[in-house]
Amino acid sequence: MSDDRLLLDRFAIEDVFARYAHAADEYDAVQWLKCYSEDGVFEVAADGNRIQFLGKPALKKFIDAHIRLLPGTRHVQTNHLVSIKGDSAAHRCTLSGMLSRPEKVYIFISGTYESYLQKIEGEWKIKHRIVHVDNGANFIDGELAQHIQPFMQWMTENGTII
Description:
Elements (H helix, E strand, L loop, with lengths): L2 H23 L3 H6 L1 E11 L2 E6 H15 L3 E13 L2 E14 L2 E17 L2 E11 L11 H14 L1 E2 L1
Parallel strand pairs: 1-6
Antiparallel strand pairs: 1-2, 2-7, 3-4, 4-5, 5-6
């Protein structure tokens, strides 16, 4: 693979994740879903627990619930590492997320994203994305719990626990 192709693919991969974050934060489920392959997986890993949403129908339900139950988010992704091998790629980055409420702006999540992508018909798509949450206990206890609990309950009822 030429250096130019490698650089263009890296930029395209980083753009997938920028579109992913902007779409979630701008309540655009259609654009968020376009970041995933048809059989894409989103997974949350926190405190030894894992839950997955498998395939576009489950991903659609997930992003719709996120928009409905957890409005006011801002996802920030930094420290991108990308490894590309042909039409497959691995990506890792640091995540922090803010949750805006009238009384305060909370840091609602910190952790890392681990992602695997595939180039499908010339376009990079997420095949599997795992968010490794640093502060999962804050979802249960503390000042964030009241804001996060409805979404956590929805995930437990609608995701696949592994």
